[in-house]
Specification:
Two copies of one chain form a homodimer.
Chain A (H helix, E strand, L loop, with lengths): L28 H10 E6 L4 E3 L7 E7 L2 E6 L5 E7 L4 E2 L1 H6 L6 E4 L3 E7 H10 L1 H27 L3 H12 L10 E3 L4 H8 L3 H13 L3 E4 L2 E4 L2 H7 L3
Antiparallel strand pairs in A: 1-8, 2-7, 3-6, 3-8, 4-5, 4-7, 9-11, 10-11
Helix pairs in contact in A: 3-4, 5-8, 6-7
Chain A binds a DNA duplex through helix 7.
DNA sequence: CCGGGGCTGTGACCGATATCACCCGCGGGG
DNA sequence: CCCCGCGGGTGATATCGGTCACAGCCCCGG
């Protein structure tokens, strides 16, 4: 009943103010109520691990509030970040739907509210509610697309500056039309390196180069694009 | 009515002998008959392009017979192969379901039989048949997984030998328990390079090295694994 | 106020691999 | 029959960026 991580836990999806227009939140009333019945709401602190790659799928997590880092790790301990999930997204759906082990690890990057649904309940829910199933398919399609985009970034670009430029453009893609787009992000150089598949030092060096050339500046957690066209030239557009 | 590409075109899914246990083929009778009504069967020669990245989605292609190469190309003309699709798989579903442009290119690698379904018809079909929709979701999950696997391969391995070893093991994963697993594959060194994101020369060199060390031999289109454990050690397992 | 730990910045080094340049062998078409 | 084009094989070279090593910095807690 209290607020353990600095915010109030919202228990009822139907009257939830966090609802985004994405995915299950935008379901018709009947399906939403059915979803509300089978879900467990919970709040997590930053750094909580929701599931680990290799575990057999317990079910899905619907992200209501906060950011969650999705990653995969090699045998030698090297980590690759696949995505930073935003509110409205569903985590662990691939494994849950196909019944194979989670192939990625999900860790909260900040205090989060999540709805958990057990696998059996979720599958039943999808079977009963065709519109929800279609939404699920759409969500999976989106995931595939973002995966394909990352494959392109990793496989088709030769240089680290190119990949970093692509990432910066991706981050600022939504804040268009501004002269100098700014984005807030709370990622260390290390984490950026893990997204574009390079080393921490290289990220530092490339960012220093971007700063020197007045292309982009990352100060604190604020990223400012000074010269978008240079970045676009780097990605080969 | 004839056999333009060396095989007979099969028009009826319900009595089709090619039916695999995967995806739509294994649907209950009602759904299968509905699918049969909305699909168009057609045969294609080798090298036919089904769709190109960037096109808006016309619909899905269900692969009955043959192999199809899925790839994506950078602005500079460099190509990355995402997958070689096998019979039973559905192509272009992400784009069709989510309504966004095809993000990959599909090209037949040999004479193929395919069933095409228009986007609207397909979406209707999914809405009417919940079990088909669930199958679709499962298929999309599989695609995501294979995409994540490729991301791992591209992002988490340092060396080309490691990636090639991973690929060889993947190819021979199904033919287990044999002392010297053999696989038939019709890929040039160039294409292998495009799968693991390296250059043609590197593939040639690494294969030569594998041959010299009696690890794996690629002769003609037959791949033979001589020493699996060395490959496994290379991928860090 | 001080100390320590995590993040950032930077230099030196060197190894894997992209790239270029060339050769060979083979198979199909003129 | 002879070419020509494609796929495969190989050496030389340049370079990107991974790795190691260390220094400065900022923030937080004691």
């Amino acid at each position: 009943m209290g607020s353990p991580y600095g915010f109030e836990l919202i228990e009822n999806c139907v009257i939830c103010k966090l609802r985004s227009d994405s995915f299950f939140c935008s379901l018709p009333k009947a399906a939403l109520e059915a979803f509300d019945k089978i879900k467990y709401s919970a709040a997590y602190p930053a750094g909580a691990v929701l599931f680990v790659e290799g575990q057999s799928p317990r079910g899905i997590y619907m992200l209501c509030k906060g950011r969650v880092k999705l990653s995969t790790t090699s045998a030698e301990g090297k980590t690759l970040i696949l995505k930073i999930s935003q509110p409205g997204e569903v985590l662990g759906m691939h494994a849950t739907v196909s019944g194979t082990p989670y192939e990625i690890t999900a860790e909260t990057g900040q205090p989060c509210q999540l709805n958990f649904v057990k696998r059996d309940d979720f599958l039943n829910f999808l079977q009963k509610h065709g519109d929800a199933c279609l939404k699920a398919a759409q969500h999976l399609s989106k995931d595939c697309q973002s995966a394909y985009q990352q494959i392109r970034s990793l496989g088709l670009s030769h240089s680290a500056p190119e990949r970093l430029a692509r990432l910066l453009l991706e981050w600022t893609a939504t804040s268009h039309d501004q002269q100098e787009p700014k984005v807030k992000l709370a990622l260390t150089h290390e984490e950026i390196a893990q997204i574009i598949g390079t080393s921490r030092e290289t990220v530092t060096r490339v960012l220093a180069d971007f700063r020197k050339r007045q292309v982009a500046v990352l100060k604190g957690s604020t990223l400012t694009i000074r010269n978008k066209s240079v970045l676009e030239k780097l990605v080969g557009a």
